[in-house]
Design brief:
The complex is a heterodimer. Chain A is α+β, with helices and mostly antiparallel strands. Chain A is 26% helix and 15% strand. In chain A, the strands form two sheets. Chain A has a five-stranded antiparallel β-sheet. A three-stranded antiparallel β-sheet of chain A has the order 6-4-8, with no helix packed on it. Chain A is globular and about 75 Å long. The termini of chain A are far apart. Chain B is mainly β. Chain B has one helix and four strands; from the N terminus they run E-E-H-E-E. A four-stranded antiparallel β-sheet of chain B has the order 2-1-4-3. In chain B, a hairpin with an 8-residue loop joins strand 1 and strand 2. Strand 5 of chain A pairs antiparallel with strand 2 of chain B.
């Protein structure tokens, strides 16, 4: 059974590049994962060497790129059961269609200060970056981040910047941006999941707690049509031609038009409008409605009536 | 090695909402050449100044600003890096 996303949730993903579900995995499953991953939130390793020895012997498999996601993990394993949760299945199906494929996964472990001190290294956060490399596609992959134990602010948390996913940048070239208004740090209960558009800018936070921090990231992609895979029952027919700019009351909250034209705190004044243009293009792609628009942003640019077209 | 002394550069990069120096700060980075502080990604959720002008009023010296460039035909709607980047410096004495 799948718990599909709503149109408003998918619109939010299109606009902001992520969906977050707190405590989506039950404690029993989180504990099973930590055991299979070779770790425990309380730590207990003498040093990095002992830690890596435990990780090397864990039950997280090496998986070939491109296999069907459903074949990537042994039935009954913690990750297989995680992927089988209705909320998880539904989110993946909604964003990638019925045939998601596995790209890669990685067990991210952020070490506590003494692990760094022991080898004379600085305890630093990971610079802001976009994964993989320059990716000009309109179609997108999804990266699922699974936080199997509670994450406190002291543990750093994964940092990400909502709304950055539509920028065509080259991986860590954007490391110069230490901080952006509106950045978020994943401080969360155990079992929290993030579903990210592959382009979202993010980085690991510095861990100042005494314990290692675990996060499993799985990148997955569509192997068939990824459009219109969510619960379409609340998808409005056509787009609302509502008044724009000169308004006597705030726009109706929660509509697709409002979601796609809500700015982020870091938006530049002029390119903030290009953000809307690109969000609308992505919504057109996902809905398969090439003429759809929000607040005339693309209609205005596409108007050829004056040229007799 | 002897104790370092002399002037050191503290560099602050501000990303503004538009090309005007008095517009709002949307992003920032600081690198302290005195070694007194170690700044890094994600270390502050509030900007050091509300605008570039506020930094000037506090004594920072502007030494570089990004250019305004035309938009190449065909990629007018593409988004990439932040456009309004301003480098500031402050000198601070160490040791001595």
């Amino acid at each position: 059974m799948s718990e599909l996303l709503t149109s408003a949730e998918v619109a939010s993903f299109v606009a902001r590049g992520f969906l977050r579900f707190d405590a989506a995995a039950p404690d029993e499953l989180n504990a099973a994962f930590m055991a299979e991953a070779g770790g425990a939130a309380e730590g207990g390793w003498a040093d990095r060497k002992a830690f890596f020895k435990a990780i090397a012997a864990n039950q997280i498999p090496e998986v070939p790129a491109g296999v069907p996601l459903g074949d990537a993990y042994a039935p009954g394993s913690a990750v297989a059961r995680l992927l089988g949760l209705p909320r998880v299945r539904g989110a993946i199906e909604s964003l990638l269609g019925a045939a998601p494929a596995f790209d890669h996964h990685f067990l991210h472990v952020t070490f506590p200060p003494d692990f760094h001190e022991a080898r004379g290294a600085e305890n630093l956060s990971q610079p802001l970056h976009q994964d993989s490399t320059i990716d000009p596609r309109l179609s997108f992959d999804v990266q699922m981040m699974y936080f199997p134990h509670a994450v406190s602010r002291e543990m750093g948390g994964t940092r990400f910047v909502p709304g950055t996913h539509l920028h065509k940048v080259s991986e860590v070239a954007l490391a110069r941006y230490q901080n952006l208004r509106g950045q978020q740090h994943v401080v969360c209960p155990a079992g929290t999941l993030l579903f990210l558009h592959h382009g979202l800018w993010h980085g690991g936070g510095v861990n100042r707690s005494p314990n290692p921090r675990f996060m499993l990231k799985i990148r997955m992609h569509a192997s068939g049509d990824q459009r219109r895979g969510w619960d379409l029952s609340d998808l409005p027919a056509g787009n609302a031609r509502r008044p724009i700019f000169f308004l006597k009351s705030p726009p109706t909250a929660g509509t697709v038009e409002t979601i796609l034209t809500t700015p982020e705190p870091w938006f530049e004044a002029d390119t903030g409008r290009l953000e809307y243009v690109n969000r609308i293009k992505l919504w057109r792609y996902l809905t398969g409605e090439p003429g759809w628009d929000a607040d005339y942003w693309l209609t205005r640019l596409e108007n050829r009536a004056g040229a007799g077209e | 090695m002897s104790e370092p002394s002399g002037a050191r550069q503290i560099v602050m990069v501000l990303y503004l909402e538009n090309s005007a120096l008095d517009s709002k700060v949307i992003g920032w980075a600081v690198h302290d050449g005195t070694g007194a502080a170690r700044h890094m990604a994600g270390d502050a959720d509030e900007p050091p100044y509300e605008s570039g002008l506020a930094a000037l009023l506090d004594g920072w010296r502007l030494f570089q600003a990004s250019q305004l460039l035309p938009h190449h035909r065909g990629d007018e709607f593409d988004l990439a890096y932040l456009k309004y980047e301003f480098f500031f410096e402050r000198l601070s004495e160490v040791g001595g």
